[in-house]
Write a structure and sequence with these properties.
The chain has five helices and twelve strands. The chain is an alpha/beta fold and 199 residues long. The protein has a single domain, classed as NagB/RpiA/CoA transferase-like (Rossmann fold). An eight-stranded mixed β-sheet has the order 6-3-2-1-7-10-11-12. A two-stranded antiparallel sheet has the order 4-5. The longest helix has 15 residues. The structure holds ligand FFO and adenosine-5'-triphosphate.
Length: 199
């Protein structure tokens, strides 16, 4: 496990992104299957009707087996879509079965923006968040855009928001001993990896 100790956020990000990109296609496939087994039968996933997740990029663990399971169980699946303006905003948009996807400005695939299918964050049941690094206390280090933090900032106003449930998804190699959290960083309920649950 990486000792985050006195590494700066940019250095930590670079090392952790490199580690996940170094995984082979076979390792990625096995990790995606293991993640699916950790989560598919869990009550948090089974009970959720509206679930946000992401399309994998830059070596991220692949949640698509969960996406397909959710769709075949009749759940609604949402993906992050970056707003054209303001550029710091992201929305969660419902994915339709035969949606066309296009690369956003970070070259991540996303559906074409359609405000009618976008949902307010607090009406979702479960958000499966991508991350670059995590610790066992719900700490999350993201790509550095602050998109998820901004979208979830409303939670800081009240201590007992319970919806949606926030679960980070990651490879085991993204675990660090401890992350310094900034004031705007939103804590995750838990992180699920190919190896187990943390937090
Ligand atoms: N799969 C996935 N989708 C996601 C996220 C994510 O982390 N993973 N995001 C979570 O927030 C949002 C995109 N956030 C991002 C934030 C910063 C960079 C970034 O710095 N990328 C480049 C450098 C900038 C550039 O190319 O212009 C890089 O790869 O270094 C990428 C994505 C929305 N969609
Ligand atoms: N609630 C917020 N309101 C305004 N700005 C914010 C908020 N949350 C984060 N930011 C801004 O976003 C920038 C990036 O934050 P941070 O490095 O924590 O992103 P991240 O969590 O790694 O990224 P992401 O959530 O996109 O994966 C910070 O410089 C911060 O100023």
């Amino acid at each position: 496990m990486l000792e985050a100790g006195n590494l700066s956020r940019p250095v930590l990000r670079r090392q952790l992104r490199q580690a996940r990109r170094n995984l082979s296609p076979l390792q990625q496939k096995q990790a995606a299957r293991a993640l699916y087994r950790q989560l598919a039968q869990h009550p948090l996933f089974r009970r959720a009707r509206d679930i946000a997740l992401y399309l994998p990029n830059d070596g991220e663990i692949d949640p698509r087996p969960l996406l397909h399971a959710a769709q075949s169980r009749g759940k609604a699946v949402y993906l992050p879509v970056l707003s054209r303006w303001p550029r710091t905003r992201m929305r969660f948009q419902r994915l339709q079965l035969h949606d066309r996807l296009a690369a956003n400005r970070f070259r991540i695939a996303e559906p074409l923006s359609n405000p009618k299918r976008q949902r307010r964050t607090w009406t979702l049941d479960l958000i499966l968040l991508p991350l670059v690094g995590f610790d066992e206390h719900g700490g999350r280090l993201g790509m550095g855009g602050g998109f998820y933090d901004r979208q979830l900032a409303y939670r800081q106003l009240r201590k007992n928001w319970h919806k949606p449930t926030l679960l980070g998804l990651a490879h085991e190699c993204q675990k660090v001993d401890r992350l310094e959290l900034a004031s705007w960083d939103v804590r995750l309920q838990a992180v699920v990896t190919d190896g187990g649950w943390y937090g």
